[in-house]
Design brief:
The chain is α/β, with parallel strands linked by helices. The protein is built from eight helices and 13 strands. The protein has a domain at 3-161 and 204-227 and 269-282: Rossmann fold (3-Layer(aba) Sandwich), CATH 3.40.50. The protein has helices spanning 12-23, 81-102, 133-147, 176-185, 205-215, 234-245, 271-277, 285-298, and strands at residues 3-7, 27-32, 48-51, 66-69, 105-111, 154-159, 161-163, 191-193, 199-200, 202-204, 222-226, 232-233, 252-254. β4, α2 and β5 (105-111) form a beta-alpha-beta unit. The protein is globular, with a radius of gyration of 18 Å.
Length: 301
């Protein structure tokens, strides 16, 4: 890979991806409408930036080896289903068509949300059970990718619960790791749904970026889980934060208002990506939280 386009390249994962690819010597172009992004995320970025949505794809360049599609509405509580599907599914369709015209490899962000409350550890082959509009949009994107898998190499990276630098702008849809840290850094006990035993596969963005880059080298089209393979309760996340912050906050529990669309348990089976791409996470959840807390403190947060 040499010439790279990243849609949503000023967002959380997209900006981390852009900076890492540029560091590796690739020529990177970013397309982002800044509806869910931060200008601070691309501090130090030297490539070209186009402000807009998928309607500006042709303006971004005539030749790309790889396109990383990160642009999406990612708030799982977003209530406008029509807009969610328009932005995520129709936007992806335009990127697919563009990638085919440019004969580029396409790597796109899928989501563990497609599994819903299915059996864990979650495998790529199991039946999808999306619970909300966001998860449905990613499910429909996966179906589109399968439909076009013979027309181009299209690889989905099915992210689990990503956390790390560059997510502050996401507000209430930022990771629970970040939200709990902010509460604790402000001197407040962290608030979580009763009784903190819900489990998530919390994966650090540095590992997510490495897996996403590796996905461009997949031999064929397909979907790969990207997680740690660990199941960590929110109570344990607070323990990890306390250790990293040298603090002793206790959780405060409250009722979950999203029970009908809420994933109780996520945990990735990462054997497929390990076998096919030789990828495995460098950071455990605890190590990722420690690294993130150090970064947040260095930023004065």
């Amino acid at each position: 890979m040499k010439n790279v386009l990243i849609t949503g390249g000023a967002g959380f994962i997209g900006s981390n991806l852009a900076l890492e690819l540029e560091k590796k010597g690739h020529d990177v172009v970013v397309l982002d409408d800044y509806s869910s992004a931060s200008i601070q995320n691309l501090r130090g970025f030297r490539g070209d930036i186009f402000i807009g949505d998928e309607s500006r794809l042709e303006e971004c360049g005539s030749a790309f080896d790889v396109i990383f599609h990160q642009a999406a509405i990612t708030d799982t509580t977003f209530r406008d289903d029509r807009e969610m599907l328009r932005k995520n599914v129709d936007g992806f369709r335009k990127v697919l068509q563009f990638a085919m015209r440019k004969n580029a490899v396409l790597v796109y962000a899928s989501s563990a949300g497609t599994y819903g409350n299915g059996k864990a550890p979650m495998r790529e082959s199991q039946e999808p059970q999306p619970l909300n509009a966001y998860a449905y949009s990613k499910y429909f994107m996966d179906n589109l990718a399968k439909k076009h898998a013979k027309d181009l190499k299209v690889v989905g990276v099915r992210y689990f619960n990503v956390f790390g630098p560059g997510e502050k702008h996401k507000g209430k849809s930022a990771s629970m790791v970040y939200q709990l840290y902010r509460q604790m850094a402000a001197g407040r006990n962290p608030r979580i749904f009763k009784y903190g035993e819900q489990v998530r596969d919390h994966v650090y963005v540095k590992d997510v970026v490495a897996a996403t880059i590796r996905a461009a080298d997949a031999k064929e089209s397909g979907v790969f889980n990207v997680g740690t393979g660990e199941a960590t309760t929110f109570n344990k996340v607070i323990d990890h934060l306390n250790k990293a912050m040298k603090a002793s906050f206790r959780p405060e529990y409250f009722d979950n208002p999203y029970t009908d669309v809420y994933q109780v348990n996520t945990r990735a089976d990462i054997s497929r990506i390990g076998k096919a791409l030789g990828w495995k996470p460098r950071f455990s959840t605890r190590a990722g939280i420690a690294d993130y807390v150090a970064w947040l403190k260095a930023q004065g947060e």
